[in-house]
Write a sequence for this structure.
């Protein structure tokens, strides 16, 4: 028996009869799913491999998971792991600042105590260690920022391909949003939130093409990360306020006498002990956000890979 011409669905890859108005595998009308000619399948007396018919046809490898609307999802696992690893290192460096600043407080307070046996030369090892620690934090922070932005562009592209949630900001804001004054208070948070919602398993596109475009859980985690991030950024302002309390407006540390300089350095160690946990927590929460989005998009990609593979035919 000659069945006639066959075509392949550009949406799910299923092989169907040329006369089908819709794809039996994914249910999309031909105008939406894009039924296109297969690879010279032509006339056949038996269904070709991957054929999906309407009577008794069961496409085994078509899950009800995500169906990217604009092509295959990009790989994000490597970038996600690299970003998470760097954020973990950064969190560790911030955590180490707590005992380091406690050591500094002990030394500077000792210099202010006339009965103490601590001398200025005793502070040198601490200052060297603090300088090395500062350089490490700056280096790791810059590396993390670069890798994070690359990861952000990748997961944003995947979020657009998934098409389940509208992305409110243009791609240019993925970088500009962090540095442009005023809008940097909320644009990056909006960008990550939109990617989070688009990637969440509850917002997959079904095999029928319907996306669950509804709010998903996780807003508390995103808000906690964002507020801690801004608390981390404001930590530098705290140091500046402490300095101005001693020097007055428009003056530098060089205008202070040695005793006031020691007091200022002691106060800086106190703020360092208090604010380092905030910076470490911000890095940890960012790590969690990165891992979750990466995991969800990998799951979407796995569903999609299973969907566009060879569709087994059963019950013909």
């Amino acid at each position: 028996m000659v069945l006639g011409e066959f075509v392949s669905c550009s949406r799910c890859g299923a092989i169907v009869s040329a006369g089908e108005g819709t794809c039996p595998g994914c249910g999309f009308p031909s105008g939406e799913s894009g039924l296109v000619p297969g690879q010279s399948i032509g006339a056949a007396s038996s269904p070709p491999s991957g054929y999906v018919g309407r009577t008794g046809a069961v496409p085994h490898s078509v899950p009800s998971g995500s169906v990217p609307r604009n092509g295959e999802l990009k790989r994000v696992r490597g970038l996600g792991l690299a970003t998470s690893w760097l954020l973990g290192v950064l969190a560790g460096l911030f955590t180490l600042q707590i005992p380091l600043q406690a050591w500094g407080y002990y030394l500077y307070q000792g210099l202010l105590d006339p009965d103490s046996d601590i001398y200025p030369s005793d502070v040198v090892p601490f200052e060297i260690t603090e300088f090395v620690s500062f350089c490490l934090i700056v280096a790791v922070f810059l590396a993390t920022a670069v890798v994070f932005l690359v990861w952000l562009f990748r997961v944003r592209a995947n979020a657009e391909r998934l098409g389940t949630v509208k992305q409110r900001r243009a791609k240019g804001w993925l970088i500009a949003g962090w540095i442009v004054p005023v809008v940097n208070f909320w644009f990056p948070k909006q960008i990550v939130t939109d990617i989070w919602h688009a990637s969440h398993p509850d917002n997959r596109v079904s095999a029928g093409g319907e996306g669950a475009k509804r709010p998903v859980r996780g807003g508390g985690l995103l808000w906690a990360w964002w507020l801690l991030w801004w608390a981390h950024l404001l930590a530098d302002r705290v140091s500046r306020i402490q300095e101005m309390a001693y020097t007055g407006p428009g003056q530098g540390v060089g205008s202070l006498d040695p005793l006031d300089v020691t007091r200022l350095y002691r106060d800086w160690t106190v703020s360092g002990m208090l604010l380092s946990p905030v910076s470490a927590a911000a890095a940890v929460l960012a790590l969690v956000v990165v891992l979750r989005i990466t995991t969800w998009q990998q799951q979407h990609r796995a569903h999609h890979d299973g969907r566009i593979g060879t569709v087994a035919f059963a019950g013909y």
In short: The longest helix spans residues 258-308.
